[in-house]
Design goal:
The protein is of the alpha+beta class and 135 residues long. It is 24% helix and 39% strand.
Length: 135
């Protein structure tokens, strides 16, 4: 009889633990703040003219440095869906235009994001990783 009670108690506690561990897949990714752009369109930013970054403000505005030029615009985050739009950018030339072009292309094709291990991964509509961001 005692064995039966122990088994029932263990089964009940296992079910309670399973219920607690389920997370909603629609929880929004917290992207607010300044992020270093480590990679865009498979191009690393190590040789960028200036440190590359993107800053997401709480008010829906976005700004940053794409290596040579500064950019600004707006973003909308809904769950894991991300859309960056209304992008304006300074128009200077510099030695790391390959990095600049990759970041510009990534900004114009964002579709979704995922946070994992302290980084944010940005994807396009085809679910290709187009940017890797780190704090």
């Amino acid at each position: 009889m005692l064995k039966k009670k122990i088994v029932i108690a263990m089964a009940a506690s296992s079910l309670a633990l399973v219920g607690c561990s389920v997370q909603s897949s629609s929880e929004p990714v917290d992207i607010v703040g300044k992020w270093n752009i480590e990679k865009a369109m498979n191009v690393t930013t190590e040789k960028a003219t200036n440190p590359t970054f993107i800053n997401f403000d709480k008010d829906g505005s976005v700004n940053g440095n794409a290596s040579v030029n500064l950019f600004k615009g707006t973003y909308k985050l809904n769950g894991d869906s991300l859309k960056i739009s209304n992008i304006g950018m300074t128009m200077m030339m510099g030695p790391s235009m390959d990095v600049e072009d990759a970041i510009t292309k990534a900004l114009n094709t964002t579709a979704s994001v995922k946070a994992e291990n302290g980084k944010v991964y940005v994807f396009n509509e085809a679910n290709d990783t187009i940017m890797v961001l780190a704090k």
